[in-house]
Amino acid sequence: MTVALSVQSVCKSISLRRESIEILRGVTFELDRGEMVALMGPSGSGKSTLLGIVAGLDRPTSGQVTVAGTEIGYLPERALASFRADNVGMVFQAYNLIPTLTALENVQLPLLVPGRDSRDGERAQRVLEEVGLGHRLGHRPAQLSGGEQQRVAVARALVSEPPLIIADEPTGNLDSDTGNALIDLLLDLRARHHTTILLATHNSAVAERSDRTLHMRDGRIQ
Ligand SMILES: Nc1ncnc2c1ncn2[C@@H]1O[C@H](COP(=O)(O)OP(=O)(O)O)[C@@H](O)[C@H]1O
Ligand SMILES: [Mg+2]
Question: Of 107, 128, 165, 184, which sits with the fewest C-beta atoms within 10 Å of its C-beta?
Answer without folding.
Answer: 184
